[in-house]
Prior knowledge:
The strands form nine sheets. Strands 21-20-19-22-23-24-30 form a seven-stranded mixed beta sheet, with helices on one face. The termini are far apart. Helices cover 34% and strands 24% of the residues. Strand 27 (530-535), helix 14 (542-562) and strand 28 form a beta-alpha-beta unit. By secondary structure, the protein is of the alpha/beta class. Among the domains are: 2-97, Histidine-containing Protein, Chain: A, CATH 3.30.1340.30; 109-222, hypothetical protein tt1634, CATH 3.40.1520; 491-600, CATH 3.30.1330.60; 641-714, no CATH class.
Amino acid sequence: xxxxxxxxxxxxxxxxxxxxxxxxxxxxxxxxxxxxxxxxxxxxxxxxxxxxxxxxxxxxxxxxxxxxxxxxxxxxxxxxxxxxxxxxxxxxxxxxxxxxxxxxxxxxxxxxxxxxxxxxxxxxxxxxxxxxxxxxxxxxxxxxxxxxxxxxxxxxxxxxxxxxxxxxxxxxxxxxxxxxxxxxxxxxxxxxxxxxxxxxxxxxxxxxxxxxxxxxxxxxxxxxxxxxxxxxxxxxxxxxxxxxxxxxxxxxxxxxxxxxxxxxxxxxxxxxxxxxxxxxxxxxxxxxxxxxxxxxxxxxxxxxxxxxxxxxxxxxxxxxxxxxxxxxxxxxxxxxxxxxxxxxxxxxxxxxxxxxxxxxxxxxxxxxxxxxxxxxxxxxxxxxxxxxxxxxxxxxxxxxxxxxxxxxxxxxxxxxxxxxxxxxxxxxxxxxxxxxxxxxxxxxxxxxxxxxxxxxxxxxxxxxxxxxxxxxxxxxxxxxxxxxxxxxxxxxxxxxxxxxxxxxxxxxxxxxxxxxxxxxxxxxxxxxxxxxxxxxxxxxxxxxxxxxxxxxxxxxxxxxxxxxxxxxxxxxxxxxxxxxxxxxxxxxxxxxxxxxxxxxxxxxxxxxxxxxxxxxxxxxxxxxxxxxxxxxxxxxxxxxxxxxxxxxxxxxxxxxxxxxxxxxxxxxxxxxxxxxxxxxxxxxxxxxxxxxxxxxxxxxxxxxxxxxxxxxxx
Length: 714
């Protein structure tokens, strides 16, 4: 029995020993696995973050980091990175820090960010940099509302050309009111926005002049787009190849589309188009690309877009069928606002072909350009005289063609007189039709043009008009032009009681009465590009005064916007003390110099919305109503001399007897003529039979002078 108990005890001990051994072995294996896995995970994490200089060792659950850290920041990052993999309490920092002499210097860099809210300094500077002095300099030399110091320092030697670069950066911050200025040792990068192209040029010149030796400048100065008026594009394909003679685009995307169409039509290099304001429609690029495609399809010719008027021309070598097809395709492709005028040019004098044609274009500056056929030299002089009597400037390229239909010159004159009812436009005269397109400030311009044709030609003349109305050209509305807008605004400012707090851009007092007067003027002037220019006296530094004047101008523009005034096309600029109008030696003079003046930046208004579609009118002239003052319908203006001269006069030429055309008139006239009496062709046939030096005396009847008896039928 005792032996059995002993054996049982021994067996129990053996089992327990075996179990304990197995547990110890398992725990050892588990601890080794945990140590190995922790070391691998931490090493991988540190290497992934670029901390490959760290050595990792494990002792049980502890993870020990050793190595020489380049900087304190690198050591901190290594500990932090290891703590993301294992419990931070298990990480033991055994790293050492490299000596200052062994550490590479950091990349010193300062960014000065300036806008209307103030100036911010961000970056890393040497510890020896006097940060307080930098801030004081910006506060004293600028009128920035606030200067915020967000700089950090590092105790390293000052790099070469650092001081020169930082001083130049501060100077640039004074000159550029809206800029990002990056300063590095020996290098300054400036990205700035200016109010105009002129201001951009002045800032670039000032930055170059102030650049110190040993400092490189990288400048990107931008300015708002210019106003292009009229908004024009002209594309030509001729013997010299495909090219632009002028090109304007309203958006970068539109410019790319126009360039792609031009290159497809044969332009070799990527063309340059001016990005500008003033496009007549958001569909400008669509119209331009379609017009270029039309010229490309013809292989030769030219297309001109002037605002919403499109003119397509082709030389006589182009087949008429191909030209008509291109015109039809372009007409279908043009957006609704645009109107098309097409012309297939005729051959030179010796090989005149096709029907007679006369064209004329009237620019916005009232320059008339005439081309086409006329019967002979005398009729050409007559047409030229009529044109010069009605338009300030005339250019003519007329070709003699005796085969033109009878009454052709009267037809041309009637069309010119109808065109004279428009501000700008073009006309085309053929034996079958008179077509006129253009812009007018008279909503009834199409009817007025038709009446003018009827007065000159009588009934039966077919016409087509496409005339758009521009309210800014309407004299009955009495809208102010750009100079008048500026004059009225400056009168208000000279009488205004708007003031500013001393040395600040904050408005003092109640500006409501002045803003109300400005609102009344801006109601009709908001579509002009205007500048509100601030001026100061000479007290204070030049940089401070420039900023103060700009801030005050901006404050006025902001107050106008808050009052509901449209200031979309208004910019603010500060001139500081540079443009005094009185002496700065007296208080009265200094008070006059502290002012805000408005200035016109462009004579042409910015068209924020396209003009309405043209009013189309077609038909046949009817019998005109009897004119109230038939004596006013003359060739040329009325002269004080009682003799109307047509052409040069020979001294020995006898004076013919008075000849009246149509109803009895006190002065010589070529119309209106009723078909039942003397037709237009008869009038000019009569003129053709006269000698070249024709002189028609004018009788001015008095109450005692009987009128000549009319001829039969008059």
